[in-house]
UniProtKB/TrEMBL annotation:
UniProt-listed InterPro entries: Aldolase_TIM, OxRdtase_FMN_N, YqjM-like
Cofactor(s) listed in the protein's UniProt record: FMN
Domain NADH:flavin oxidoreductase/NADH oxidase N-terminal: 1-315
Protein name: Oxidoreductase
Keyword Membrane: no
Residue ranges the record marks as coiled coil: none
Superkingdom of source: Bacteria
Pfam families membership: Oxidored_FMN
Membrane spanning stretches: none
CDD domains recorded: OYE_YqiM_FMN
Amino acid sequence: MCMYSAQNGLANDFHLTHLGQFALGGAGLIFTEATAVSPEGRISPEDLGLWTDEQIVPLGHITDFVHRYGGLIGVQLAHAGRKASTYAPWRGRGVVPAEAGGWPVIGPSDEAYNVFYPHPTALTVDDIRRVTADFAVAARRAQMAGFDVVEVHAAHGYLLHQFLSPLANARTDEYGGSFENRTRFLLEVVRAVRTAWPMHLPLFVRVSATDWAPGGWDLDQTVALANLLRFEGVDVLDVSSGGLTPVQQITPGPLYQTPFAARVRREVPDLLTMAVGMIDTPAQAEGILHEGAADLVALARAFLRDPHWPQRAAREFGLTPALPDVYARAGW
């Protein structure tokens, strides 16, 4: 969940407090918000970043805290592409102008997300290689910062997803057109990150299983992509959906995205899957695992509402929650 609370990509006391509370609350694995691999890759001027060595130590304070209290933490590496240089939701709408800290944006083609978003410049092949290298270098910085997991963000209409979907990718070179060409950039990024990131540490990839729009990326293509990613050293596919086009038609509801993860798990058994999306209660999460719909369950808004969600879940299942010594006197 993007917090839009950094300056120059640097983590600060807010991020330490925000992410640290989940370790105290018993989360098994915590993820940072989308963390930009380059300044141009930020969604907003206030996004976290890992494009410079200066950003390593502040994030290291957070990973140290999480580890001290028994948690694990991953970083989500991202590039917003044509959805970059936009305002945080409560600060405005659409393009951030240059005088307010905005910047030129890039994408697979020169089509904007919508009329309120910036007009992108299509990446050249050299640009694609540069961005690929940015992901790899950010992964090395993530290791130095002490992260346990890296996740490549290829969902929600950001740059790598833009290349995957025919609705955003109108290229006619080796990075556009066919399924093989549209997946090429993501696969190159994953290979570069896997080379930079230690083999003994997990690599996740987040995808949108469908664009929820005719002619876009869909679940069949997601399954085909999953079959490719399992040969690239990817350990977990984090299966979300949407975000690519403003014409998407979604009817959200409890567990509405879980069937996407379930199909990938069923058809690509060598690749672990993570279910996300309106999973609120412990019973819902336990049901996903019990039914074999996914191997892991991720929650976001539920944790914003209750950072101690795992401890409450343990109590609901008749277990004794694991509590940090400093909180044990509170009892359950």
